[in-house]
Amino acid sequence: MNPRLATAVTAAKKIGFPKASIENAIARGQGVSPNGAALENLTIEAMVPPSVAVIIECQTDSKLRTLADLRLAVKEAGGSVTPTNHLFERKGRIVFEKSEETDEVDIMDQAIEAGAIDVDITSEDGTEEVVLLTESTQTTAVAGAMTQSSGLRLKSSEIIWDPKEDMMVDVNSPEALGDFLERIHDNPSVQDVYTNAN
Description:
The protein has 198 residues and is of the alpha+beta class. Among the domains are: 1-36; 89-163, YebC, transcriptional regulation domain (Alpha-Beta Plaits), CATH 3.30.70. The protein has 6 helices and 8 strands, in the order H-H-E-E-H-E-E-H-E-E-H-E-H-E. It has helices at residues 3-14, 19-29, 63-76, 104-114, 139-150, 174-186, and strands spanning 40-48, 52-60, 80-81, 88-97, 118-124, 127-135, 153-163, 190-195. It has a 4-stranded antiparallel β-sheet, covered by helices on one side. Strands 5-6-4-7 form a 4-stranded antiparallel β-sheet, with helices on one face. Strand 1 and strand 2 form a beta hairpin. It starts with a helix and ends with a strand. Residues 40-197 form the TACO1/YebC-like second and third domain. One of its GO terms (cellular component) is mitochondrion. This is TACO1/YebC-like second and third domain-containing protein. InterPro entries: Integrase-like_N, TACO1_YebC-like_2nd/3rd_dom, Transcrip_reg_TACO1-like, Transcrip_reg_TACO1-like_dom3, YebC-like.
């Protein structure tokens, strides 16, 4: 077990995360289901009220079951499964842990020099993070260059669906959308969910 995984498992055990859930997560990370079946990738696109585009990325050992479950959730939310990826752009998202001595101006300069197209410094759970967006094809190169030039600790690097700025939708009553997204996230096959909701 690599050190980062060992640390994550230890942290999960400390907060009382069930052993079965930890084992399932490790199996998924290795591309197999808890029963050893190979996992397949599945992407579902949908529109749900009020005209919110949704992209759901899954890893599943049964595409038909997952598709049926998620289609039902979309239908019951008043939506429909339909292409929506034209409302998004594929981008790389790289997250670094920001240290107290990090100079924000230097970080932004280094990020832009490394090839980032957007830089944001956020705070999550009391920890400051440097979040970079890149062209999807440049994610690995930018992450490597930034790690080398800044000395920051890399937390994650992934390809995401980023909603286009001019396609964002204001949601006046977020409760229904929140309930739908919660239901989607409760499906064990769902890995990521992207929306264009403000």
